[in-house]
Design brief:
Blueprint lengths: L45 E5 L6 E5 L8 E2 L4 E10 L2 E11 L4 E19 L4 E22 L2 E10 L3 E9 L5 H16 L5 E4 L6 E7 L2 E9 L1
Antiparallel strand pairs: 1-2, 2-3, 4-5, 4-12, 5-6, 6-7, 7-8, 7-9, 8-10, 11-12
C-alpha cells in the first residue's frame, strides 16, 4: 500500500503467502504495478494553513501543534496597472518581491496602445493625428512600511528606453517633415509621463483594487498576493 499524499512509509516487508484482494477495485487497479516513493531532499520548515472558519492564512512550524502559529504575511505580489483614456490604453504587470532591508523590486514591460491622439501646434497652425504601439521596460522600486492601518507598499515605476512600432500619422498636406519629427521626438516623454508613484496596502490575500491618479486621468491598480 502507499499513502496518496506522498508521506514516506516504512520499508516494505515480504509476505509468506500470495496476497489476496477483497472489496471493490478502482478502474486502474493493477496488482502487478508497484509504486516506489523516493525520499525527498527538501526540508519543510513550516506549513501554510487556512483557518476554515475565517479563511485567514497562517504559518505552523513543523513539529508543533498550534502553540507557535503565526499570521502569514505575503512577501510577493502581482501588480497590474491599467489606464483607459481618450488617447488610448496603457498597461503593465509586474511581479513584486520584498528585498532585505524593507525595499521592494520587480520588472515589467509596459505597452501604450496610442489611439487617435491629436497634436496641435498653435504657432504654426497645424494639427496631426497619430496612432502607434509604444513599449517601455519598467523597473519597480520602493519600500514596504508598517503604518497604523497596516503594511503599505510605496511603489515607484522607473521607465527604461521607450520604443514604438506601427506609427501612423494622418495629417493635412501642409504638415512638414520637421513637424512629423517633432511628434516622434515627444513620444518618449508622453510615455514616461504615464508612470506614477502609488501607495497600496500590502495585502496578504487578494486581489485588492485601487484607483491610480494619472494627472487628470484615473486608472486602476490590482494587487494580488502570491
Amino acid at each position: 500500500m502507499r499513502c496518496e499524499c506522498g508521506n514516506p512509509l516504512t520499508p516494505p516487508q515480504p509476505v509468506p503467502t500470495t496476497p489476496t484482494y477483497t472489496g471493490p477495485r478502482w478502474p486502474d487497479f493493477d496488482p502487478t504495478v508497484i509504486i516506489v516513493i523516493q525520499q525527498t531532499t527538501v526540508i519543510i520548515e513550516e506549513f501554510i494553513l487556512i483557518d476554515i472558519y475565517t479563511g485567514d492564512r497562517f504559518v505552523r512550524p513543523t513539529g508543533t501543534a498550534g502553540e507557535q502559529d503565526a499570521v502569514k504575511q505575503a512577501t510577493a505580489w502581482t501588480l497590474t496597472v491599467e489606464l483607459v483614456y481618450r488617447w488610448g490604453e496603457f498597461e503593465w504587470t509586474a511581479d513584486i518581491v520584498v528585498n532585505p532591508g524593507g525595499t521592494i523590486g520587480g520588472t515589467a514591460q509596459a505597452v501604450w496602445h496610442a489611439n487617435g491622439y491629436t497634436w496641435t501646434n498653435d504657432p504654426d497652425n497645424w494639427t496631426g493625428t497619430w496612432t502607434a504601439e509604444v513599449y517601455c521596460p519598467v523597473t519597480v522600486v520602493g519600500t514596504i512600511e508598517d503604518t497604523p492601518t497596516g503594511r503599505m507598499l510605496h511603489i515607484t515605476p522607473v521607465p527604461g528606453t521607450v520604443t514604438w512600432s506601427d506609427l501612423v500619422i494622418v495629417d493635412d498636406p501642409s504638415l512638414r517633415d520637421d513637424q512629423k519629427a517633432s511628434i516622434e521626438s515627444q513620444i518618449p516623454g508622453w510615455m514616461e509621463g504615464l508612470f506614477v508613484e502609488t501607495d497600496l496596502p500590502a495585502v496578504d490575500e487578494g486581489p485588492v483594487l485601487a484607483t491610480v491618479n494619472f494627472g487628470p486621468e484615473q486608472g486602476s491598480a490590482t494587487l494580488t498576493a502570491r
